[in-house]
Amino acid sequence: MNDHIYKQLIEQSPLGCSFHKTRYKDEGNPYDCEFVEVNHAFEKLTGLKKEDVIGRSIGEVFLENNKGEHDRTSDWKRIINNDEIKEFEYFHWRVGKWLRINVCFRNKDYCIMSFADITHERNQISELTKSNKRLENIIEGTSTGTWEWNIQTGETIFNERWAEMIGYTLEEISPISIATWKKYTYSDDVKQAEHLLRKVFAGEKDNYEIECRMKHKDGSVVWIQDRGRVTSWTPNGKPLLMSGSHTDITEKKKAENTLTERTTLLSEAMHISKIGSWKWDLNTKQIFWSEEMYEIFGIDKSTVIGRLGGAISSIVHPDDLHIFEDTIALSERKPFEYRIILPDHSIRHILAKTGDVTFDESLNPIFLIGIVQDITEQKKIQLALIKAKEETEEANQYLVNAQKEISYQKELLESVIENIPHPLSIYDNRGNLIKRNVAGREFYPDSVERKTIKDEHDFYEYFDLDGTMIPAKDLPSCRASRGEIVKNQVVVIRRGDFEQITEATAAPIFDEDNNLISFILFHRVITEFIEHQRLIKDQQEQLLKTEKDKIETLKDAIRVKDEFFSLISHEFKTPITIIDTTIQVMELICINELSDKAKGYLNKIRRNVNRQLRLVNNLLDITRMETGHLKINKRNIDIIYLTKAITESISIFALHKNIELIFLSAISEKIIYIDDEKVERVLLNLLSNAIKFTPEGRSITVRVSQKVVDGRKLICIQVKDKGIGIPEDKQDIIFERFGQVNNSLARQAEGTGIGLHLVKMLVQLMGGEITLKSKIGAGSIFTILLPIEKAKVSSIVQIVETDENRLEQLTAIELSDIYM
Fold first, then answer.
1. d(Cα 763, Cα 621) in Å, to the nearest integer?
2. 582 and 636 Cβ atoms separated by less than 8 Å
3. With contact defined as beta carbons under 8 Å apart, do 664 and 701 qualify?
4. How far apart (Å, rounded) are the C-alpha atoms in residues 87 and 225?
5. Distance of alpha carbon 254 from alpha carbon 704, whole angstroms
6. Which residue in 820, 817, 807, 803 sits closest to 613, CA to CA?
7. Which ranges in 422-526 belong to alpha helices (H)?
8. Residue 654: burial class (beta carbons within 10 Å; 0-12, 13-18, 19+)
9. Which phi and psi angles does 593 have, rounded to 5°?
10. In sequence order, which residues have a C-beta less than 8 Å from that of residue 212 and are 6 or more positions away?
11. Is the separation of the CB atoms in 120 and 98 below 8 Å?
């Protein structure tokens, strides 16, 4: 191809082009390239005219004055030397443009170059580089972590700052994925984050933002603000790429918590300090009170809506109203005090201060604020302080006097210790002897040579009264050195012929911090006392033996007495029975032949026979019970029927005294396994007493019910009268043998005093108990509780004619003291 063709190609190119011829040195080495031709685009691009460059070398045109940061000399030389370089960028200093130079063709003689203006592209790259650098500086300056996430592939990119926030490097926790983020995030926050992401992916939210807790390497909690958004979506509308940032907000969270705590503390402090606050809206003229304000002024919030000013003025102390009339003083916003009178007429002292004005964003005043404090207690404290000051002065004088007294008491105490007639020793906490009184020095021979408690333990032997040696650790002194208090431990101290019996007491002494500083050991010599006690013990043992012999003799005498008593009772019963039989024969054979007077005498004889028979029966039963010979004969009995029959059997006696006799039972029938004869004796005795001690015109009530006491089902029978009552101090003795209420109202019906004693014994013999409640003038209630035993297989027994005859006879005997 000749030069003409090259030139045509160059001229037709839309790019800036140049045609060059290679220059060689004499030895055949190329050293430069000469411009042969340039096109119009070259001239326009470089600002060089064709005539300025044709015939000149590249070095003369481009390399002259082209030094500094844009120097490309080495690239030009490589082209001249025919090195393998096809393209490079060059800053043309003449026109201030960046050119991209391409070597389009090259052989040993010629080369063609193209020139393109890339100044705008280079400027964009420069700006992008600067922008990236600024962004890096901003991220570095704000300590923000960044992240990128390909949602479809799961690939993630986290910067080093995020790892630093939780105490790691990226290398330590690699490989990095979403699972890595979840691993270091608290599970509750992971769930919340996943919930927010689902909303972002669904298009319900534009941005993703959450404050979450992450686990730091040192175990602490780091609060992270995680923000991000989807930056691209797949063609089918699925999220593809997402990027965001991590910001450490731990300090912010701590500050928020601190602010919350301080706000709470301030509120509590104001409540505790009785400080209320108020706010006056300067636009609406409304006043707003805190809850403490209503408490301080004792005002019901619901009663003063819209009229707080009037509510206050109505309770201000009359002597303090002038304070609110002094508007100049109030405008100075200085604290002032006044008093209020509460509805209960008590007086409260109030400290008030008008605060500052608050402004809106346009600096317009909107609120006037102030505080009020109940200083009643402070006022009381001030008075108390004044009084305390006076008392302190008195106390100081007292202390001066007390110090003198202490000094005197100390001397006195030392004198007392020294003159105590028993050995007393004081040791420090290491067991070194501090002080020993005169008696102690006399008690321990040669004690001057023994300076510690250990010396004493090594010198003597210690035993208890039984002769058992006491180990050193169990001695009173050692126990006191361990902080124990020992009282009256008997210790026998021996060495050779020396022996003393002592009652040792030891006590530790502590300082204010409960540290042992010393201990005291006190011996009371009881050698003579112990010997005396031993002598007394021998005498007491001899005396005890003598008393036992006497008791045995007394028991024999009582047994003989009981046998005699039983014999006498039987001897009494025989003639009484004969007399009773004789009366029955007389009534049967010759009752019609007797005069009315004789019949009256006969009735008196019968009544007194019954009284004697009652006494003899009671004595015999008591004797049998005490000797264990009284037997219980149980049968299946309807206790309701039996109690009612007994009650009705005495109705004639109640009617004679005009006493209303009432029987009550909520149960129609209750079969229990019991001795019906003993029940008759008990109830007739109680009813006899009730009739005897109930005045005419009153009532007696017998009530039967069922109760559960401590899980046991019991039959409860109550005999209640409205009689004269029993004094409280006599209620404990009436159940004792021969126990009686000795008053003028009871003498008219006085008995032997063994009836209620027998009643209690019979009730207890049947497995029950009896109690009494009584009040003078109101009457008495005797309550009997009997066990409900399971009925036996045998048939149930009702009260038949034979039993009714027995009941009639028993009624006549038990009520023989009642005169009709």
1. 13
2. no
3. yes
4. 49
5. 77
6. 817
7. 438-443, 453-459, 476-481
8. buried
9. -85, -10
10. 185, 186, 189, 190, 192, 193, 223, 224, 226
11. no
Tokens 């009371």 -> residue: 524
CB 102 within 8 A of CB 114: yes
581-614 pLDDT, tens per residue? 666 667 677 777 777 777 676 666 766 666 566 6
At 129, give phi and psi (nearest 5°): -65, -45
Separation between Cα atoms, residue 181 and residue 213, nearest integer Å: 11
**Number of other CB atoms surrounding residue 635 within 10 Å:** 16
In the Cβ-directed half-sphere of 138, how many Cα atoms lie within 13 Å? 8
CA dihedral 614, 615, 617, 620 (to 10 degrees): 170
Whether 775 and 753 have beta carbons less than 8 Å apart is answered as no
Mean of all residue pLDDT scores within the chain:
79
Q: Write out the E strands in 85-141.
A: 87-92, 97-106, 110-117
CA dist., res. 779 & res. 743, Å (int): 15
Q: How far apart are CA 174 and CA 781, in angstroms?
A: 94
CA distance 183 to 588: 117
The answer to whether the CB of 19 falls within 8 A of the CB of 112 is: yes
- Rounded-to-integer distance, Cα 521 and Cα 503, Å: 11
State the pLDDT confidence band at 743, using cuts at 50, 70 and 90: very low
Q: What is the pLDDT of residue 580?
A: 64
**Distance (Å, whole) CA 162 – CA 178:** 13
CA distance 721 to 660: 10
Dihedral of alpha carbons 592, 598, 602, 603, sign: positive
Could you tell me where the beta strands, DSSP code E, fall in 684-791? 699-709, 712-721, 769-775, 779-787
Long-range contacts for 207-213 (Cβ within 8 Å, ≥24 apart)? 208/242, 208/244, 211/249, 211/253, 212/185, 212/186, 213/185, 213/186, 213/189
Secondary structure (3-state) at 509: strand
Rounded Cα distance, 658 and 250, in Å: 98
- Label residue 287 exposed, middle or buried (CB < 10 Å: 0-12, 13-18, 19+): middle
pLDDT in tens, 234-292: 989 899 999 999 999 888 888 888 888 877 776 776 667 678 887 777 787 777 778 88
Q: 779-787 and 287-289 as β-strands: parallel, antiparallel, unpaired?
A: unpaired
Q: Cα–Cα distance between 284 and 366 in angstroms, integer?
A: 9
Tell me what the mean pLDDT of segment 666-673 comes to: 90
Question: In the block, which residue shows the tokens 């005997």?
Answer: 813
Asked if the peptide bond before residue 175 counts as cis, ω within 30 degrees of 0, the response is yes
Whole-Å CA distances, 697 to 495, 655, 774? 90, 10, 19
Specify the 3-state DSSP secondary structure of 33.
strand
Determine the Cα–Cα distance for residues 636 and 808; give it in Å rounded to an integer.
Answer: 21
Rounded Cα distance, 612 and 624, in Å: 18
pLDDT above 80 (res 466): yes
pLDDT at residue 154, as a whole number: 87
State whether the Cα torsion 524-528-532-535 is positive or negative: positive
**pLDDT at position 818:** 60
User: Nearest-5° angle of CA 461, CA 462, CA 466?
Assistant: 125
Q: Which residues pair with 357 in a beta bridge?
A: 368
d(CA 147, CA 227): 10
* CA atoms of 213 and 182, how far apart (whole Å): 11
Could you report the per-residue pLDDT of 336-364, keeping only the tens digit for each?
Answer: 888 888 888 888 888 887 767 778 777 78
Q: What is the CA radius of gyration of the chain?
A: 62
